[in-house]
Amino acid sequence: MNNRDHRKMTIIDGKVAFSGGVNISDEYININSKLGIWKDNGIKIVGDAIWNLTVMFLTLWNANINEDKDITKFKYDFNDVNTNNGYVIPYGVAPFHRDLIGEDVYINMINSAKNYLYIMTPYLIIDTEMINSLCRAAKRGVDVRIIVPGIPDKKIVYTQTSSFFKVLHDNGVKIYKYTNGFVHSKVFLSDNIRSVVGTINMDYRSLYLHFENGIYMENVNEINEIFKDFEATFKDCTKLNDKDVKAGFIKSIWQAILRLFAPLF
Questions:
Q1: Active-site residue among 166, 169, 184, 210?
Q2: What are the sequence ranges of the domains in the chain?
Q3: Residue 209 has what DSSP assignment?
Q4: N- or C-end of the chain: fewer Cβ atoms within 10 A?
Q5: Mode of pairing for the β-strands spanning 237-239 and 174-178
Q6: Do 213 and 56 form a contact (C-beta atoms < 8 A)?
Q7: Which of 72, 202, 25 is nearest to 126 (CA)?
């Protein structure tokens, strides 16, 4: 029940692929959204990197049906694609992996950031290692900014998310609320050099329990477009101050209790 498939990928003839946070539902294209503007991100890739996504898809497909004896027939030969434009590496996360790939990629990006680190996430339920990495980055002078929803989809989950605001804020991490509605994007960006767009939320379920996927990029042109998207989104956000992140005694107790049940949400 817990190990659900949270991946989102569309692969067409092995020639083009799409991934990101977008599910197949009206609110993701802002039709009948009850949470204001639904902010999400997706990315299109062309080239040999598509094969990683294809293998992820077929591995799950054939785990249930076992109809494809030779999956190489789905591989397209990209002899004509320019391969000098950095690196694009789709990767998968599965609950039976010994290595916590999703969390490791995020922490490595946090630890390697030198100038800035921008994050969009709908949920922020993180462990001590992730908290410490974010705080250390801010303390060494990195401009660390995290965008979270202004209108939450799950109030109990958002109460847990807000419980991390104060410790991060007090250590120099800047928290932004997307005032127009709900942020469903799962995007990391650092120094205009590295970025991840994918399905992996910053919560217990995505990092430990779900089947997930991400696309890691380094020194590719598309990173400039991701930076522009962040800049545009910040204009629709409110930066939280000392008063905003402070919780009263009763709320603090409630948040502490909810943290015990974080794996359930």
A1: 184
A2: 9-264
A3: I
A4: N
A5: antiparallel
A6: yes
A7: 202
CATH superfamily label, 9-264: Endonuclease Chain A (3.30.870.10)
**Is 70 an active-site residue?**
no
Closest CA to 170 of 145, 148, 146, 138: 138
One-letter identity of residue 155: K
Question: 13, 80, 99, 242: which is the annotated catalytic residue?
Answer: 13
Catalytic (active site) residue 97: no
pLDDT for 84: 63
State the pLDDT confidence band at 63, using cuts at 50, 70 and 90. confident
In the chain, what is the straight-line distance between the N-terminal and C-terminal CA atoms, in Å? 13
> Cα(118)–Cα(167) distance, rounded to whole angstroms?
18
Contact between 58 and 68 under an 8 Å Cβ cutoff? The reply is: yes
218 with 87: CB under 8 angstroms? yes
Q: Is-catalytic flag, 184?
A: yes
Report pLDDT digits (tens) over 189-205. Answer: 999 999 999 999 999 88
34 is a catalytic site residue: no
6 is catalytic: yes
Can 68 be counted among the known catalytic residues? no
Which candidate in 48, 143, 153, 191 is catalytic? 191
CB 149 within 8 A of CB 183: yes
* Active-site residue, from 39, 186, 203, 210: 186
